[in-house]
Design a protein that fits this description.
By secondary structure, the protein is mainly α. The protein is built from 26 helices and seven strands. It is 58% helix and 6% strand.
């Protein structure tokens, strides 16, 4: 395991106010993807196509975050995972709850380190449940991870915290004394105890007796659970298992044709009734059958492949749409896994599906699927930008932000003034996702938007990002008559963004504000004072010259503001030669 340092929990004491929302959003999406990978791997096994897709996507996104941050640390509580003091994963149920699973097995902090390999990540997911290796399935997560000794995944246990005298210094390496006994010794103790009990159950020395097996209460509970699960097994699933088993062994051409025709009817029926869990299980069986049917002729293999791809047909997509619109509370995890297995070229029918769904949760699920499928044909999203329904336009823009292609920027420009504020706000978010730095001119027009929340979002992007812009792009904002009526706090924020993005290009504007005849206009005096502060913060030679010019104005408030700004600038960054 990678070594933890005594300062591993230091971030819990830090203020979260400086944490950028885009970072938290990215971490939340990463943990949500881990949760999906965790559940699909546990449900369908690590070799399932859907589980592998989620795994590859999670590994890709995790690698990006580790490249940026070096290490990602999460504190595990019963119902949530905490990142830098902020919950990024929450669940009130203990069933398939990732945080609960870690917490219950004693893990209080989990860290991923840069350089994490796919093999290490795969073993970590396997260790969460331990169902794929019978030798380790009875061990907890800590024991299984201890055995592997992964260099890029570290953790801190509850035992380490309890045994420490000082909470802030307990996060010692995994090789610390608290867990110094290897898992093999723990199993040896258990094995010795089992042998002792068997010896006690034997008859008198030297006499052979009947074989007696003692079952512990825990083993009895597990046996009862297995019997209950077998008894409660869905009969339809059992029947589908039998049918696919017949497919792998049957040699009669006539029976195989009839069986494949029956499979087509089953797919259509399950789709029509919206039984996504069963449909997903059946499609997975068909995919497995393609690999396990050496007896099939080329004709039958082609028919089976066509059958697997039939869900991509517009008629099948339409049936999915009808079923979803009839059930607002439908569980979507299995359907999402199913849609991800479809051919990526089905992005166009999925675009239609997203547009025609009634409920937002259903549409957002399809959006997440399209964000993966549309990678191979991003131009399909352009059609959604001209749709008359605002949510179709917004969702198309949302997917563009997920894909992050710069080619989308020119297509977003014509709809910058869309009539619906929700669309305009999504444009700002997407522009930030595609262009997190560089030219900031595209954000500036939104500072005059009629919707206050959009103005605030655009201003926040400019203030927190590293953008550059020309003063010509700012002129329509700061010279607009409505700007003078804004509260002084809003003007100050705009001036700060103007200074950050334009630099010396804005000095003539500041110079005009501190030298204009404004002694009878209170609003202009306020702007002149703010201009003096901006020039002082800029601190260049040209800015200081402008402040000296402001010191000679008639208005006392302007003169004082220029003097104070000049003094502060000179103290902060003294010049070799004072400007004259």
């Amino acid at each position: 395991m990678a070594q933890s340092t005594p300062s591993s929990f230091a971030w819990l004491q830090e203020s979260t106010a400086a944490l950028a929302p885009p970072e938290i959003q990215a971490i939340k999406q990463l943990i949500a993807l881990l949760d999906k990978t965790f559940k699909t791997t546990r449900t369908y096994g690590p070799k399932n196509p859907v589980a592998q897709k989620f795994f590859q996507q999670f590994y890709h996104d995790l690698t990006i975050q580790l490249t940026t941050h070096g290490v990602l640390q999460f504190m595990a509580q019963r119902a949530e995972l905490i990142y830098k003091g902020i919950p990024v994963y929450q669940s009130t149920s203990s069933n398939e709850n990732l945080a609960f699973k870690l917490h219950a097995d004693g893990i209080r902090e989990l860290s991923f380190h840069q350089g994490l390999s796919q093999d290490d990540l795969a073993y970590f997911l396997e260790a969460l449940w331990g169902t794929y290796d019978s030798d380790t399935s009875d061990d907890d997560i800590v024991t299984r991870l201890w055995e592997k000794n992964l260099a890029t995944i570290s953790f801190v246990t509850a035992e380490e915290i309890v045994n420490a005298a000082d909470v802030m210094t307990v996060l010692t390496p995994q090789e610390s004394y608290t867990l110094n006994s290897p898992p093999s010794q723990l199993r040896h103790i258990a094995g010795t105890e089992a042998s002792r009990q068997k010896g006690g159950a034997s008859g008198p020395a030297g006499q052979a007796g009947p074989a007696i097996y003692e079952i512990s209460p825990e083993e009895q509970r597990k046996l009862l659970e297995e019997i209950g699960a077998e008894s409660a097994r869905d009969h339809t699933t059992y029947l589908l298992d039998m049918l696919t088993a017949i497919l792998t062994s049957e040699t009669s051409d006539v029976l195989l044709n009839r069986l494949l025709d029956l499979f087509g009817d089953i797919l259509a029926t399950l789709t029509r009734h919206g039984d996504w869990k069963l449909l997903n299980a059946f499609v997975c069986l068909l995919h497995e059958a393609q690999e396990l049917c050496p007896n099939l002729s080329e004709h039958h293999k082609a028919k089976l492949a066509k059958l697997c791809g039939s869900l991509s047909h517009p008629d099948s997509i339409k049936a999915i749409e009808t079923a979803l619109n009839a059930c607002p509370t439908a569980s979507l995890d299995d359907l999402q896994a199913l849609l991800l297995m479809l051919d990526p070229h089905t992005a166009q029918p999925l675009c239609t599906l997203m547009a025609n769904l009634t409920y937002k949760t259903h549409r957002m699920m399809v959006c997440d699927v399209l964000a993966i499928h549309a990678k191979q044909n991003p131009s399909l999203l352009m059609r959604g930008l001209t749709d008359t329904r605002w949510y179709v336009v917004r969702n198309s823009i949302y997917i563009m932000g997920k894909l992050g292609h710069e080619q989308f920027l020119k297509h977003l420009e014509p709809i910058r003034t869309h009539e619906d504020a929700r669309v305009r706000k999504e444009i700002v978010r997407t522009l930030r996702a595609i262009s997190p730095s560089g030219k900031g001119d595209s954000f500036i027009p939104f500072l005059n938007d009629t919707e206050e929340s959009i103005r605030q979002l655009a201003l926040k992007v400019l203030l927190t990002g590293t953008y550059t812009a020309s003063f010509a792009a700012w002129a329509p904002i700061v010279d607009h008559k409505s700007f003078h009526d804004r509260p002084i706090s809003k003007k100050k924020a705009v001036f700060q963004a103007l200074r950050q993005t334009t630099g010396e290009d804005s000095i003539p504007y500041w110079h005009r504000l501190v030298t204009t005849s404004s002694w009878i206009n209170r609003k202009k005096i306020q702007e002149g004072i703010l201009a003096a502060e901006a020039l002082g913060a800029l601190g260049t030679s040209a800015a200081l010259l402008a402040l000296k010019a402001g010191q000679r104005r008639f208005n006392r408030a302007i003169r004082k503001a220029c003097t104070d700004a000049l003094t502060a600038a000179m103290k902060r960054q003294p010049l070799e030669s004072e400007p004259t």
